[in-house]
Design goal:
globular
Length: 311
Amino acid sequence: MRAISQEVLGGPEVLTLVELDRPALGPSDVLVRVHAAGVNPTDWMHRKTGLYLGAPPFVLGWDVSGVVEAVGAGVTLHKPGDEVFGMLDYPRGAGAYAEYVAAPSRNFARKPAGVDHVRAAALPVAGLTAWQALVDTAEVRPGRRVLIHAAAGGVGHLAVQLAKARGAYVIGTASAPKHDFVRGLGADEVVDYTRTDFAEVVSDVDVVLNAVGGDYGPRSLRTLREGGTLISILFAHSENMEPAAKKRGIRLENLTVEADHAAITAIAGLAAEGLLRAEIDGVLPLEQAAEAHRRGETGRTTGKLILTVSG
């Protein structure tokens, strides 16, 4: 099969098209022919540093949408020919930048009706991150005030929609050119972080989802009411935040996304109903993975970048 691999750590140029054996199919696994693969910030972090994967060679990518080619022993959930989407085991199950992937069957759900493979491939990692932050961790419900940083980004734009679907009042941070987009997602307020200190104009929120590093964590504490929850997906909580948070009963959480069949099935349902829709910033063929990384690393994309693989 064709795949994008790297022999060394480094810039986008280390990503090269190679021929590899198809992955082995184990018990409880499905072999999926990949039609589209999502590109996420964690991909270029691993490309540069190895992060959880260690030393190369490895194939990056965790977002998959495709068609089941074969099933392993004991699989009852999917059959060959089923259109599915899902997330490979994060972090050590990388391999979506390839024509085939093998993973536990329950990492996948049926592709939402009316959603093509490109948009389906944009949902798993970002959608599961938003779900596990807002639903599983913060238990967002009607009437809650939720602040979402980088609201036009891959996780952020899905988090806005998910929070609205659960009846929350949503405030997003984004640069001015993206305000109409974020409002179109359902945000009730949008703050231009380039001109305004969000901590000066936002207050009494119940939940903050922080997808930005730097001082966004400490500043976000100021926006929360007592007993609120601050969730970071970048491990941005510093020890000096803990005393202030504890004094006000604020819960600090660092979140790492996990594969989750129940959650990806719920996400499929929302997408089928039109309540959750991935914005696609660009679609490139597999062999242009390096270019996708270059675009993504600018930090100026809106929504997701996708690699088309087959189909």
